[in-house]
Amino acid sequence: MSFNDYENEDSRIQDKLKQKTWNEIRTNDSWAIFKIMSEFVNGYESMARIGPCVSIFGSARTKPEDKYYILAEKIAYKISKAGYGVITGGGPGIMEAGNKGAHRGEGTSVGLNIELPFEQHFNPYIDKDKNLNFDYFFVRKVMFVKYSQGFVVMPGGFGTLDELFEAITLIQTKKIGKFPIILVGSSFWAGLIEWVKTIMIDQEKTVSPTDMDLIKIVDTEDEVVEALDNFYKKYNLSPNF
């Protein structure tokens, strides 16, 4: 982090801690509510026209030559050929690979882009009428889970883990349907899964052993499509596209 980055971060913290009058707080909060409402309304209207898809989560930092970028593109291509639309976070890395694969497979390619000070910019493989922009992470996450028929989780960072555990929590608490959660890359996810089993389940008993049934770990694009198809055959459903 450069000196300017530290300086900007310091000024942001000072601004947050600065004393504001009650009228300033109330006014700022009121305008924020309207902005949040507008993002929800625009998101609902746009996504309702698109219909449910399969969400692909993963790192924005993954380079095109990386094996997981290549695999994500193959997965999205196979998903689109199987009749599923694809939703990503709209940015670079794994998100770009997901949209690229869907675009190459002539399937629906949706991008839910977020305004960030670094990393994020929308990729060129999103359908032009399906590129949505958000300022608020929580609004964007609602769009992911409300309009997803399945979640494919590639290797990623904190944002990817946030999206993964959000989906698991909502399914576990029956706030959304029991859609498949597919983790791609057994070597990447092995440590996390082992910690959940040994510490959370066996040692501390903060998670039910049956919650692990919500997750499937795979390594290939064919396994992803097979997991999705098996789920929909089980419930006598079919893709929306």
Automatic annotation (TrEMBL):
GO molecular function (one): AMP nucleosidase activity
One of the GO biological process terms: cytokinin biosynthetic process
Annotated Pfam families: Lysine_decarbox (PF03641)
InterPro entries: LOG, LOG_fam, LOG_family_nucleotidases
Keyword Signal part of the UniProt annotation: no
Signal sequence annotation: none
Reaction(s) catalysed by this chain's protein: AMP + H2O = D-ribose 5-phosphate + adenine
Presence of the UniProt keyword Ion transport in the record: no
SUPFAM superfamilies from the UniProt entry: MCP/YpsA-like
Cellular component, GO annotation: cytosol
Keyword annotations from UniProtKB, A to Z: Cytokinin biosynthesis, Hydrolase
EC number(s) from the headed UniProt entry: 3.2.2.n1
Family: Belongs to the LOG family.
NCBIfam families per record: Rossman fold protein, TIGR00730 family
Name of protein: Cytokinin riboside 5'-monophosphate phosphoribohydrolase
